[in-house]
């Protein structure tokens, strides 16, 4: 089998199974694991997959900038926002991450809710202007235009001064083995700081983020407490998440 034929086979297996295991492919194709790893490196360089320990996962489709992501599965995101909003209780202090699903969460908060929202997302803060009972605290820093969030040392200092009840986290990849991931190293660091400053973390994940990975790990999946995902999330994934001890909220379920 020629190199390109082999690589096309790898992509077909990835599409079929949702992951590649280098050891298994080596045996199947009667080539060395080094050959498979070289193929995976080349395919990753073309942006066709994300290498992880022992193989590869699909690359996240959620790596586009904020404006482009607004048109990706908007129904999923609205349903997740509504389900997550019901988890915010009166009197709580919550962190809300940046991103298009986080904006849907802010939009769905009860009009009479009295709580404090701390956010490094200008988009979320603007959405909350319409909620008079919500005290909005902005975390400053350097604007990361791709995700429209503040990052850097100033943001880190602001986060460290807050003890939140809950952090509503947005990521670009959710996988049992590869964990919670995103596409930028500095943004991943901010997300870890927000997790560390919160009593619990609720992950907001629309369908294109499930079973995929991005380059920068935020945390192992088990460090979250709750996942809010679409009602149509694969049953096998839901079972695996619950096996880790996570609460799973199926947004949009009857």
Detailed description of the structure:
By secondary structure, this protein is α/β, with parallel strands linked by helices. Helices cover 38% and strands 25% of the residues. The strands form 4 sheets. It has a 7-stranded parallel β-sheet with strand order 6-5-4-9-12-14-15, sandwiched between helices. A 3-stranded antiparallel β-sheet has the order 1-3-2. Helix 2 (22-29) packs across helix 3 and helix 5 (74-85) packs across helix 6.
In short:
With 254 residues, the protein is α/β, with parallel strands linked by helices. Helix content is 38%, strand content 25%. It has 10 helices and 15 strands.
Amount of beta strand: 15-25%
Query: How are the strands of the biggest sheet laid out side by side?
Result: 6-5-4-9-12-14-15
Based on secondary structure, the structural category is: alpha/beta
SSE string: HEHHEEHHEHEHEEEHEEEHEEEHE
What order do the helices and strands come in, and which of them pair?
Layout: H1 3-17, E1 20-21, H2 22-29, H3 33-45, E2 50-52, E3 55-57, H4 66-69, H5 74-85, E4 93-96, H6 100-108, E5 115-119, H7 122-127, E6 134-138, E7 142-144, E8 149-151, H8 153-160, E9 164-170, E10 173-175, E11 179-182, H9 185-196, E12 198-204, E13 216-219, E14 226-230, H10 235-243, E15 247-251
Parallel strand pairs: 4-5, 4-9, 5-6, 9-12, 12-14, 14-15
Antiparallel strand pairs: 1-3, 2-3, 7-8, 10-11, 11-13
Keywords:
7-stranded parallel β-sheet, alpha/beta, elongated, 10 helices, 15 strands
């Amino acid at each position: 089998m020629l190199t390109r034929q082999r690589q096309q086979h790898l992509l077909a297996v990835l599409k079929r199974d949702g992951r590649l295991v280098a050891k298994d492919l080596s045996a199947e194709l009667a080539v060395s694991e080094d050959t498979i790893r070289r193929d995976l490196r080349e395919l990753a360089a073309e942006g066709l997959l994300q290498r992880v320990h022992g193989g590869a996962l699909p690359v996240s489709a959620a790596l586009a900038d904020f404006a482009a992501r607004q048109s990706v599965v908007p129904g999923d995101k609205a349903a997740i926002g509504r389900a997550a909003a019901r988890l915010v209780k009166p009197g709580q202090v919550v962190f809300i991450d940046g991103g298009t699903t986080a904006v849907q969460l802010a939009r769905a908060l009860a009009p009479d809710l009295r709580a404090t929202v701390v956010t490094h997302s200008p988009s979320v803060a603007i959405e909350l202007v319409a909620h008079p009972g919500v005290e909005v605290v902005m975390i400053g820093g350097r604007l990361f235009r791709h995700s429209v969030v503040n990052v850097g040392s100033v943001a880190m200092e602001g986060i460290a001064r807050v003890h939140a009840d809950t952090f509503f986290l947005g990521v670009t990849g959710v996988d049992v083995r590869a964990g919670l991931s995103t596409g930028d190293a500095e943004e991943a660091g901010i997300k870890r700081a927000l997790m560390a400053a919160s009593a619990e973390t609720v992950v907001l994940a629309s369908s294109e983020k499930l079973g995929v990975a991005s380059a920068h790990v935020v945390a192992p999946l088990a460090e979250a407490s709750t996942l809010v995902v679409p009602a149509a999330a694969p049953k096998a994934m839901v079972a695996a998440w619950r096996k880790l001890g996570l609460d799973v909220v199926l947004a949009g379920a009857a």
